[in-house]
Amino acid sequence: MIAINRRQILLSGVFLSLFAVVGTTLVALTEYSTSAAIAENERQVLLRNLYALLPRDQLDNDIATDTLELPASTLLGTDDVSTVYRARMLGEPVAAIFNSVAPNGYNGKIHLLVGVYIDGRLAGVRVVKHAETPGLGDAVEVRKSPWINDFAGKALDNPSQERWLVKRDGGDFDQFTGATITPRAVVAAVRNTLLYYQQNADMIFY
Q1: Is the peptide bond before 71 cis (omega within 30 degrees of 0)?
Q2: pLDDT reported for residue 76
Q3: Which tens digit of pLDDT belongs to each residue from 5-28?
Q4: Domain extents in the chain
Q5: Residue 167 has what DSSP assignment?
Q6: pLDDT above 90 (res 54)
Q7: Strand, coil or helix: what is 54?
Q8: How many C-beta atoms lie closer than 10 Å to residue 173's C-beta?
Q9: Does the CA dihedral 140-146-152-155 come out positive or negative?
Q10: Of residues 98, 117, 123, the one with CA closest to residue 189
């Protein structure tokens, strides 16, 4: 009787071990098979955002891989390295698209892509991540409001630096009804990105 019980316990242990191995293998295979798809989806989202700022006919390089890692910078609002994407045409620099952060949004950090042409003009701006209030601060999203499109063509001297403020603060940029903090933060972050580019343009396109 004792021998039978021991055999049953041994067999149960073997089966449990087999189930554990099979389960772990299935989880690993599933993760492996989906990780490539997830990475490709993330790449496609990135490309859509990049090409929204710089149409494909303005560059002929692979902008998603022609990158440079930038050190943490207060002007970019980053406390870690960030990536800048470089656009070229026939080998000549066209524009740089920065990952910038407005650290002082109403509900925290607002993550931006800021495109800057080689001459310092803005190609455009897109908000890629935020936690602003729906119906108020989320008007920084291009799908919610055209407000973000007003940055295209602007530069540090257009308007002058002292006018890089929302109208409530005496500047040239509109704020949202009932929400001033969010556009104020984005305007400041975009201006600071232009300042960063002005100071580091030679390093960006070395």
Answers
A1: no
A2: 98
A3: 667 776 666 666 666 666 676 665
A4: 1-53, 58-204
A5: G
A6: yes
A7: coil
A8: 22
A9: negative
A10: 98
Q: Is the peptide bond before 159 cis (omega within 30 degrees of 0)?
A: yes
Q: What predicted TM-score, i.e. pTM, was given to this entire model?
A: 0.81
User: What size, in residues, is the chain?
Assistant: 206
Residues 128 and 111: beta-carbon distance below 8 Å: yes
CA contacts within 13 A on the Cβ side of 94: 21
In angstroms, rounded to a whole number, what is the distance separating the alpha carbons of residues 105 and 46? 23
Query: What is the pLDDT averaged over residues 114-142?
Result: 94
SS3 180: coil
Residues 6+ apart with CB under 8 A from 170: 163
Q: How far apart are CA 19 and CA 28, in angstroms?
A: 14
Query: Does residue 74 register a pLDDT over 60?
Result: yes
**Rounded alpha-carbon distances, angstroms, from residue 23 to 18, 51, 164:** 8, 42, 58
Distance from chain centroid for Cα 109: 12
Structure-block tokens of residue 155: 């530069």
Please give the pLDDT value at position 173: 96
Tell whether the model's pLDDT for residue 171 goes beyond 90.
Answer: yes
35-39, 45-49, 92-96: least confident range: 35-39
